[in-house]
Amino acid sequence: MQALIYKSTGSWYQTKTVEGETVQARMKGIFKIDENITSTNPVAVGDEVTLAFEEGEQGEGNAIITAIGDRRNYIVRSSPHGKHKKHIIAANLDQAVLVCTVKEPRTSQGFIDRFLVTAAAYHIPAVLVFNKKDVYKAKEMEKFEHWKAVYESIGYKVMLVSAAKKDGIDELTELMKDKTTLMSGHSGVGKSSLINELMPDMKQLKTKAVSDWSGKGMHTTTFAEMFDLPKGGRLIDTPGVREFGIVDIAKTELSHYYLEMQPYIAECQFNNCLHVNEPGCAVQQAVNEGKIDVDRFVSYASLLESIEEKQY
Fold this sequence. Notes:
alpha/beta; Rossmann fold; 3 domains; six-stranded mixed beta sheet; five-stranded mixed beta barrel; 13 strands; globular
């Protein structure tokens, strides 16, 4: 029986079959020691899996995950079990949405760029959604318009919404229609409020999920969870993702995930150029000529410095 993983607590998985039936399942032991699976969690939300029912068992939780389908893509963060290990947040995504704010609280450009780098590294289109439009005054609008110009010139979609005023919700609903979308954001940016507008029945869904589990294997820790959107598509909520770890990215690769740098990389004098202080660097020249935003370059340099080369 084919199914999709909707939620994981580490031991038990909530799945939905192609017929739409919700089934609780556990993982076959062999996946836990499979050397080909390098993440700390071999099964992630969004995975397509094969289920089998244990012979002779009845009732809840008697399904076994016997196979994991090939992933189109996935997105990771540093594992809580070790910063050099990776934890797959979700798999088989059509897009990733980062909810940001210019005010109350302001999202840092460093966090935005870290998210975009991670999405680019795993071939996932990313969208920036700035929330709390209703509290922006002239100064905040000027900052938003600057960031909008910078990121749209790179090729990213940027939206301005207000969950409180229900402004921009229709456009966001259309963006997510018939797609599997991961949504993330710092605490306080209003991600939950946006999700409540996209899914008016969210509270009932969460209540139902808890009662369905009957407490079995439940944890209050930060696990991603997938929901069906009322107008088509699926939303993966990622509570507690404070920072996306730059995992498995070497220093020489980082510039490839700053999309505006890609046209200039091949023109550098050295093929292992890090674009910081090397002679004949086409990327630095592009920054000097205003073709690459200075703040983005500063963000790149800061992120580059945070990568420990000894990982590789």
